[in-house]
């Protein structure tokens, strides 16, 4: 048994030295102190990394089908009144939605950007169409206007060309005009009045759109109804000078937010030069899945963007507005949160202690032998 213990003793890789042979130096104490501080800092850093999960990234081909895309936006137009602003969507499959009113809130802004009114009835850009004729059609160019009295005419020749004339015709019949919004003359006059009232205002629009997951676009078009009607409205001559589509994108994202996502258009602002025109954003949407440490999946999207301004001083004159054209990448990004193993953490701690201890020992040895050699040369008179 004693022989076995003696053999085991000879395997000791850490022979002990009698303390009488130790020599302690000032430089050694400084190196030890610095090494201890470095070890402590590295220990804290490694411990923090252990408790925070790491994220692994993987790229796969996107094979999903039939999904929908949610577009979240918050955009401010400081020079376009809410009455003239409308939003449309369309995609390459032929699906179109005009003048969207649901899931959108608009805020009227004064010239200083302060909120005048906030309404959640939708964006509802008002449209003015050609006047409704008595015979049921719309007024054509060169044709004389004779508005309908909606059944309250006293003769076949009677015309009601204003909201007040319709009211008077109803009054003579003893009828009540319960919903003037359905009367063409009243709706037109209300539109003109709102445009004149909000002439110097701005508009903040925020909400979300639900679109098909195919290439398409959504756009904010000021005065769309006025341009499409192609009629002369003297009261709206103020619009003939064009629109200032200066805008600021407070928020634009596709899908649900997830940790670490970067939306490149958040906070982006563009100021229109002298002429009006169309500002276009070309967006490449990258489908993304984020899996957290508990295994919960967040299906979302990232995107990159380029932009272009199309001047309005060309023919044919483009529709003024802000257009967002989006397309999808065939590659899907998968982020997965993972915890580091305890064994990996302990291994790194041992590496820190051993590495710092070894390096500090080399530095201390270099300093000690350097001082010793210098002192010896000074004693021999080589250095004065």
Automatic annotation (TrEMBL):
User: Which protein are we looking at?
Assistant: Endoplasmic reticulum vesicle transporter C-terminal domain-containing protein
Q: Which InterPro entries match?
A: Erv, Erv_C, Erv_N
Residues passing through the membrane, by range: 21-44, 342-368
Is Cell cycle there in the keyword field? Answer: no
Location comes to:
Membrane
* Gene Ontology cellular component annotations, sorted alphabetically: COPII-coated ER to Golgi transport vesicle; endoplasmic reticulum; membrane
Where does this protein have coiled-coil stretches? none
Q: Where is the Endoplasmic reticulum vesicle transporter C-terminal domain?
A: 149-364
Q: Provide the alphabetized UniProt keywords.
A: Membrane, Transmembrane, Transmembrane helix
Pfam families in alphabetical order: COPIIcoated_ERV, ERGIC_N
Name the principal localization, coarsely classed: membrane
Tell me where in this chain the Endoplasmic reticulum vesicle transporter N-terminal domain is found. 8-97
């Amino acid at each position: 048994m004693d022989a076995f213990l003696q053999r085991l003793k000879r395997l000791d890789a850490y022979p002990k030295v009698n303390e009488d042979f130790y020599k302690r130096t000032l430089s050694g104490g400084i190196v030890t102190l610095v090494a201890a501080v470095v070890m402590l800092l590295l220990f804290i850093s490694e411990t923090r990394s252990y408790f925070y999960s790491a994220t692994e990234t993987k790229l796969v081909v996107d094979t999903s089908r039939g999904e929908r895309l949610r577009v979240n936006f918050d955009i401010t137009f400081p020079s376009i009144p809410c009455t003239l602003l409308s939003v449309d969507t369309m995609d390459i499959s032929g699906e179109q939605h005009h003048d969207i009113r649901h899931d959108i809130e608009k805020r009227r802004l004064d010239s200083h950007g302060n909120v005048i009114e906030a309404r959640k009835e939708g964006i509802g850009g008002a449209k003015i169409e050609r006047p409704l004729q008595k015979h049921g059609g719309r007024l054509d160019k060169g044709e004389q206007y004779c508005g309908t009295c909606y059944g309250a005419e006293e003769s076949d020749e009677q015309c009601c060309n204003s909201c007040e004339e319709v009211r008077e015709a109803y009054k003579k019949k003893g009828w009540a005009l319960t919903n003037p919004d359905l009367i063409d003359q009243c709706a037109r006059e209300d539109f003109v009045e709102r445009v004149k009232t909000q002439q110097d205002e701005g508009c903040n629009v925020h909400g979300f759109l639900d679109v098909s997951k195919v290439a398409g676009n959504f756009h904010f078009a000021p005065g769309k109804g006025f341009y499409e009607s192609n009629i002369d409205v003297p009261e709206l001559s103020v619009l003939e000078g064009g629109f200032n589509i200066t805008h600021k994108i407070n928020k634009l994202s596709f899908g649900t937010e997830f940790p670490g996502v970067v939306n490149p258009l958040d906070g982006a602002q563009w100021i229109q030069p002298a002429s009006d025109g169309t500002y276009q954003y070309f967006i490449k949407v990258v489908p993304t899945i984020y899996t957290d440490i508990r295994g919960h999946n967040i299906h979302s999207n990232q995107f990159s963007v380029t932009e272009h301004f199309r001047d309005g001083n060309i023919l044919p004159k483009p529709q003024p507005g802000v257009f967002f054209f989006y397309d999808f990448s065939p590659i899907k990004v998968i982020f997965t949160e993972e915890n580091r193993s305890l064994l990996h953490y302990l291994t790194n701690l041992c590496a820190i202690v051993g590495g710092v201890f070894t390096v500090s020992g080399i530095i201390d040895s270099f300093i000690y032998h350097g001082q010793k050699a210098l002192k010896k040369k000074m004693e021999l008179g080589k250095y004065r």
